[in-house]
Design brief:
322 residues, ABC transporter involved in vitamin B12 uptake, BtuC, two-stranded antiparallel sheet, cell inner membrane, ABC_transp_permease
Length: 322
C-alpha cells in the first residue's frame, strides 16, 4: 500500500514535533500559564492569517490587512468611549473594516490595478487616517464587559477568543470548499482568463474575497482591543508579514489557485510555538523575525523548485507516452 501524506498532514506533524521539542527543552513552555497565554494569542494572529490566505489564493496580497484591523478597532473604540454600547461599537468596527475591504476590492476588481500596489497604497492611506483621528495616541478605557471577548473563558476552560477562531476556521473551510464562491476563488487563482470565459464574474468574486478578508481583520481587531483595553495605529502590525509567511508555509501557492485552511492554521501554530519558545529562552525579539523571515525564504525557494520540477515532469510525460 502506497500511502502519501498531504502537505497539510506533514505540516501538522511538524507542528506537533516543534511543540514536543519546545516542551522538553524550553523552561516553562508546557506550564499551564504559558499554554493559556498562547491560546489567547493564537486567535488574533490566526484570523489575520486566514484573511491573507484567502486573498493569496486569488494570486493577490493584502498589505493593508493589519491597518484595516487597526481602523476597525479605532471605530469601535470611538463608539465605546463616546457612550455607545458594546454591540453598536462592534457593528461600527465591522462596518469600518468592510468599507476598507470594499475600497480595495473596487480598485482591484473594477479598475484592474495589481493588488500589491493597491493595498500598499491603502496601507499608507489607512495609517494616515488613523493617525489623523487619534493624533498618534492610544484610545483606551472600554467597558469591563468588552474585555471578556479577548480575556474571558467558556466554562472556565476554553478562551472565548479561541472559540471565535474555531468558528471562523470552520466557516472559511466550508466557504472555500463547499460554496460556489469558494470554487470560483480557486478557479480565478488558477486561471482568471479561463474563469472569465466560463461565465464567472471575476469582479464579484474578488470583491467578496477582499470583503471577507476585511471581516476577519475586524474580528481580530475586536479580540485584540478587548485583550489590551486600548487601540492605536500599530494594532496588530507585527502580524502583517507573519500572516503572509503563515499562508505560504501552510501550502498556499503565492501565484494563486491553491490553499488550505488547515495548512495555514498549522503554520500559525508553528510560528506561535517558535516565537513563544524563543521568548522564553530569552532570545531578542528581532531573532524571532529573523527565524520567520528565513523560514519564508526557504519555503518560497522550495515551492519554486518544486513547481518547476512538476512542470518539467508534466511536459515530458506526453513524450514518453508517445
Amino acid at each position: 500500500m502506497n500511502a502519501k501524506l498531504s502537505k497539510e498532514s506533514i505540516l501538522g506533524l511538524i507542528a506537533i514535533g516543534i511543540f514536543v521539542g519546545m516542551s522538553l527543552f524550553t523552561p516553562r513552555f508546557f506550564s499551564s500559564s504559558n499554554l493559556s497565554n498562547m491560546m489567547f494569542q493564537l486567535p488574533e494572529f490566526g484570523l489575520i492569517a486566514l484573511g491573507m490566505m484567502v486573498v493569496i489564493i486569488t494570486g493577490g496580497i493584502d498589505l493593508s490587512i493589519t491597518y484595516i484591523a487597526a481602523f476597525s478597532g479605532v471605530g469601535a473604540a470611538l463608539m465605546m468611549t463616546n457612550g455607545f454600547g458594546i454591540l453598536p461599537a462592534i457593528i461600527v468596527g465591522i462596518l469600518f473594516a468592510l468599507a476598507c475591504g470594499a475600497f480595495n476590492g473596487i480598485v482591484v476588481s473594477r479598475i484592474g490595478v495589481p493588488p500589491i500596489l493597491v493595498t500598499l497604497g491603502t496601507m499608507v492611506l489607512f495609517e494616515g487616517v488613523i493617525l489623523a483621528i487619534t493624533s498618534g495616541n492610544a484610545i483606551s478605557g472600554f467597558p469591563d464587559a468588552y474585555s471578556l471577548i479577548g480575556n474571558g473563558y467558556y466554562m472556565g476552560i476554553i478562551p472565548l477568543s479561541l472559540l471565535i477562531l474555531l468558528f471562523f476556521i470552520i466557516l472559511t473551510g466550508i466557504l472555500l470548499n463547499k460554496s460556489t464562491w469558494g470554487r470560483r476563488v480557486y478557479m480565478y487563482g488558477s486561471n482568471d482568463t479561463a474563469t472569465l470565459f466560463s461565465g464567472v464574474k471575476n469582479s464579484k468574486v474578488l470583491m467578496k474575497v477582499y470583503l471577507y478578508a476585511s471581516l476577519l481583520a475586524a474580528v481580530s481587531a475586536i479580540i485584540m482591543t478587548s485583550r489590551y483595553n486600548s487601540v492605536k495605529v500599530d494594532l496588530g502590525s507585527s502580524y502583517l508579514l507573519q500572516s503572509v509567511a503563515a499562508a505560504v508555509l501552510g501550502g498556499t501557492n503565492i501565484h494563486g489557485g491553491y490553499g488550505k485552511v488547515m495548512g495555514t492554521i498549522y503554520a500559525v501554530l508553528i510560528f506561535q510555538f517558535i516565537r513563544n519558545g524563543l521568548n522564553l529562552m530569552g532570545a531578542h525579539s528581532s531573532l524571532v523575525d529573523v527565524v520567520i523571515g528565513a523560514i519564508l525564504i526557504v519555503v518560497l525557494t522550495f515551492n519554486f523548485f518544486s513547481d518547476k520540477f512538476s512542470r518539467k515532469k508534466a511536459e515530458n510525460t506526453p513524450e514518453k507516452a508517445a
